[in-house]
């Protein structure tokens, strides 16, 4: 299979370049037609490799693509998810070659979307094409569900999944939108934290007041918000909001072991980030704190005069952006309620507070012993020569939880990117070594199933 | 004297209008020549009323004016201070008539500087002119020291005073740059709070970090500053910085009585300001809190992402503007040291803090029983029919403390404005009733001395 891939690699890369040339930036209205064009290009490619029942489903935003091939009788069915939209490109001046003119240098392909996620998604199409060419058929049933709104938080996909449970039913959902641990060390991510983002506003008077005339006798909106925000953590870095830890599991030893196996160089990381020390929940390692423990962070804060110079005002309003990362069975809506109650209880005299929910996403954790995951691990081992590790991601990909919950099926997060491929940044790229090995691993996986 | 003033009122107002037409905005470089023009106009007027030794002293900024008349042998000498510069005028669209086209309506003169301080300072010139015309001489020795930089914090006057102690020596410094309590109720302000303004910066990492990848394990610059700022006050509204109250006197009963005599309508004020309740140091009334007690206020705070929407960053820097109002014998430089020490002691792990001093000004309190003040009170009583009250201002006019300390002489703050004459705001004005009564009161005062 390896040789067969090498024979076709050049033409595969030319095809990928075509897709990468389409500036399908979902966040920018002026690129709406480009996003549509990327969907059409993919629909055509799916047809070319033998997929059937191809649909471009229009939504209020960008379209969802569906396709299937269901002729492998009594074999399992896999649902492949990916996204054909990309992040904006600014700052443009930092790109060494233009973001939508794909260029190969040093065995990497450079372009916006090269690894996130056009390049990784494309691997599945080419794996299927090769298997079909070689055997005239496929060893598994395939369904594709590809969206164009991942970079804008997938507003239209969850309702589509909800309404099409039967149609999308599968034995596993396959997603390649994560990364290896490092060159040569594959990874299957088995946990993603959930998210809850909020905005807190505090108001204490009609208008900013002069600190000479009123200072000392009236509430100050910045003092008030400081007082509230300072109640969120105790001296051990634990979140001091009542019931916040409801649903947070005590990590099993096996999970702690899986976390400990992921390389985490504290000394190097401190240097790179310019931090004096790590700082978090007592009783957990930094690697655990950023992956399997929940957080509450203030992401931004503003109030009063903060320009050049000085203004002797008593601020009448202030606001803070606050977010949580959630784990286990924590529910964003419940956690929001607890935080709201906590803020009400801790609001000082004269502070009118208002909390607003902005973003929610459930956490998800997958069992690395699930046979669908273990077979993916076998495929990785065959191609890369080592078994994958099982990292727990600190970030959130809310759609993973939706697939897992609504379709009631394991999700296999097989990453083929590398951690430093500049996703969401200038000079995004994808290593060609993993382009070839990715196709090979997917072929192996399908054959093992 | 009253009739004599009425006879000349029209021509006096025409003269004042000439001065008010000069847009002498000290803060704006494009008005530098206008500030100079106002100084020249005043120098000419001082000459016209018989003043001698007139000097326009150039500085690095705008000029200082000096003039004197020292022929009242064995009589006391008064030094009259005022300023001929004005505040900027924006928002221009809110002015009912243009700020530099003085207009009289409803017995008020409208223009930028009408009450602060061209109008009030002009009263002294006209009082002297009338006395001189009537008697051919003056009952006191007069010195004028008028500046053009009061609205930009008087950078050049204190060193001038320091260098010219002998030249400026007097039995009292007279300043009319404050206000009556209300129509018909005169006031001599006998205390001004000092000021100390600072900026605190906190840094925790090289760059903002992603809250998914690092959330839970690294310091957050907003958390850090919140933790520091929340240590400044205890639960009784007292400032919890060690040694902060050094030099703060326990208010004497007479002082508390003088404060209590000033009308302070708590109910009305709460409504007007839109505050739920007053909030300050336990054990003092709001009227005391804003006048004879020191404060520490956060005037502004910023850190992380605070625009529309959401960004899941862990902020790497934050900053706060902090200021104190000081009383009694508190020294701004000492207080700054105590605050710096306090911040160092209370900085959490991983926070690199930096404090910068921006503004300092000493507090001043004057004894209402001083004969120079009591004679001013007599003059007020003769003209207004009631004795003045002795308010303690919550704000700061640092030059008052400089005169008081360097010349070692009482400062008599005889206000003739009214509290709602829109100083520093659109539609600034000055009531003509107090224009006439002001001139009369000053004449009476000079004759009493």
Automatic annotation (TrEMBL), chains A, B:
Transmembrane segments: none annotated. Keywords: Hydrolase, Metal-binding, Protease. Residues 191-348 form the Peptidase M20 dimerisation domain. One of its GO terms (biological process) is proteolysis. SUPFAM superfamilies: Zn-dependent exopeptidases. InterPro entries: Cyt/Met_Dipeptidase, Peptidase_M20, Peptidase_M20_dimer. GO terms for molecular function: metal ion binding; peptidase activity. NCBIfam families: PRK07907.1 (NF005914), PRK08201.1 (NF006053), PRK09104.1 (NF006579). This is Peptidase M20.
């Amino acid at each position: 299979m390896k040789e067969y891939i090498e024979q076709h690699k050049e033409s595969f890369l030319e095809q990928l370049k075509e897709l990468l040339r389409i500036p399908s930036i979902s966040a920018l209205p002026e690129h709406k037609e480009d996003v549509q064009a990327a969907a059409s290009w993919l629909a055509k490619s799916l047809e070319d490799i033998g997929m059937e029942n191809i649909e471009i489903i229009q939504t209020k935003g960008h379209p969802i693509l569906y396709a299937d091939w269901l002729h492998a009788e009594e074999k399992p069915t896999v649902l492949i998810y990916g996204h054909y939209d990309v992040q904006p490109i600014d700052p443009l001046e930092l790109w060494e070659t233009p973001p939508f003119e794909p260029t190969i240098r040093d065995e990497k392909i450079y372009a916006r979307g090269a690894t996130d996620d056009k390049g990784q998604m494309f691997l599945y199409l080419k794996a299927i094409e090769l298997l079909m060419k070689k055997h005239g058929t496929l060893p598994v049933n395939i369904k594709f569900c590809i969206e164009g709104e991942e970079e804008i938080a997938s507003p239209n996909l969850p309702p589509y999944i909800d309404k099409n449970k039967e149609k999308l039913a599968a034995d596993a959902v396959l997603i390649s939108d994560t990364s290896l641990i490092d060159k040569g060390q594959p990874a299957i991510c088995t946990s993603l934290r959930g998210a809850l983002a909020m905005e807190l506003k505090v108001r204490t008077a009609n208008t900013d007041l002069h600190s000479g005339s009123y200072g000392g006798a009236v509430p100050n909106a910045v003092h008030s918000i400081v007082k509230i925000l300072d109640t969120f953590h105790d001296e051990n870095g634990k979140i001091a909001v009542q019931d916040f830890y409801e649903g947070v599991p005590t990590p099993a030893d096996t999970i702690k072991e899986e976390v400990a196996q992921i390389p985490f160089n504290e000394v190097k990381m401190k240097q790179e980030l310019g931090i004096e020390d790590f700082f978090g929940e007592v009783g957990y390692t930094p690697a655990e704190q950023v992956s399997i423990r929940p957080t509450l962070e203030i992401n931004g804060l503003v109030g009063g005069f903060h320009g050049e110079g000085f203004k002797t005002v008593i601020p009448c309003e202030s606001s803070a952006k606050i977010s949580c990362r959630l784990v286990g069975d924590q529910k964003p809506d419940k956690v929001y309620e607890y935080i709201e109650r906590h803020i009400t209880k801790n609001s000082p005299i004269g502070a009118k507070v208002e909390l607003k929910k902005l973003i929610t996403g459930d956490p998800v954790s997958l069992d690395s012993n699930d046979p669908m995951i273990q077979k993916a691990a076998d495929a990785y081992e065959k191609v890369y020569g080592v078994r994958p590790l099982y990292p727990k991601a600190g970030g959130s990909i809310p759609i993973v939880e939706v697939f897992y919950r609504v379709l009631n099926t394991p999700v296999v997060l097989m990453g083929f990117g590398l951690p430093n491929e500049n996703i969401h940044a200038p000079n995004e790229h994808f290593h060609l070594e993993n382009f070839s090995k990715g196709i090979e691993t997917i072929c192996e996986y399908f054959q093992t199933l």
